[in-house]
Design brief:
There is one protein chain. This protein is α+β, with helices and mostly antiparallel strands. The chain has eight helices and 17 strands. Strands 1-2-5-6-9-7 form a six-stranded antiparallel β-sheet. A six-stranded antiparallel β-sheet has the order 10-11-14-15-17-16.
């Protein structure tokens, strides 16, 4: 017969792994290695590295860093057994020096490609994944970033957003969802309706498998939109049809990961137009996707 003390001890032992998983990574060592802090969403700790040093334009429109120039790293797991995955925004001559540094730390490179079309200067996007202790991964990532001109100093605190401009409400009304306004960019992260796994581990939406949609003002009462839809094979062409029917250009279609289930395709897009028309196109595309 199990005594109350032994029963309590047994429950604590059986619960310990669950408590460890729930706690996730300790953020302080990551912050120290990277020189900045991030944002915790559930078990995901995401640190951003906007390319504020770049002055990228598309057909004369200056791209805000939050629209399409944001490098990021998402940490999950535990301190000793962590995974980091993310996306780095790089100039062409930075791509291979950064990859070399990441590979020397046993990071996997899962994709190298464009997200935009006709941008000046041309930028590339490197997707990566690493496994190990959280502090080691953060230190290796910083060393990789140092092979580029990505700003690594601690960023200034973000200014409080003023009253949102009129285009924000117009976009939100057209899309049918509330977004997040920061740095002049209205952002959406719409989770998929199905779970995404890799090596039997569920990848949370905040780690890069949510529909990512961004808007910024584009003058003359217009907005620009870009981002990436996260799609199964069956969703790819219905989404293309909806985007093109609403005059939203498809700029890239490719993978970001290597062994995820279900197999996912990432579709990048671009449009400039009225908040109502562009928002309606995004809403129509979202209806073709299994989302929450």
């Amino acid at each position: 017969m199990i005594t109350r003390l032994r029963f309590f001890t047994l429950i604590c032992v059986l619960s310990f792994p669950l408590l460890v998983r729930a706690q996730g990574v300790t953020t302080a060592p990551i912050d120290q290695a990277l020189g900045r802090s991030g944002q915790k969403t559930g078990d995901v700790y995401k640190v951003s590295f906007p390319r504020t040093d770049l002055h990228v334009s598309v057909h004369g429109l200056a791209i805000k860093p939050g629209l399409a120039l944001g490098s990021w790293a998402a940490f999950l797991g535990t301190d000793d057994n962590a995974m980091v995955m993310g996306d780095l925004v790089l100039l062409e001559d930075e791509v291979n020096p950064v990859i070399e540094k990441l590979r020397s730390a046993d990071f996997e490179i899962s994709a190298v490609h464009n997200h935009l079309i006709d941008e000046t200067p041309h930028v590339m996007y490197v997707h990566y994944m690493g496994h190990g202790s959280a502090s080691h991964l953060a230190a290796a990532l910083r060393e990789g970033l140092a092979a580029s001109k990505t700003p690594l100093e601690k960023p200034a605190a973000a200014a409080e957003e003023a009253t949102p401009p009129a285009w924000v409400k117009a976009v939100e009304d057209s899309v049918g969802r509330k977004g997040t306004l920061k740095g002049g960019v209205l952002s959406y992260g719409v989770p998929r309706g199905d779970a995404v796994t890799m090596a039997s581990m569920t990848i949370p939406p905040a780690a890069g498998v949510a529909e990512a949609i961004n808007f910024q003002a584009a003058g003359a009462s217009n907005v620009a939109t870009t981002g990436d839809f996260v799609l199964t094979a069956e969703e790819v062409n219905p989404v293309i049809s909806e985007l093109q029917a609403h005059k939203i250009s498809v700029t890239a279609l490719h993978s970001h990961m290597l062994t995820e289930q279900p197999r996912l395709f990432f579709m990048h897009f671009w449009a400039v137009g009225s908040p109502d028309s562009v928002g309606a196109g995004i809403a129509a595309a979202l209806k073709k996707i299994s989302t929450k």
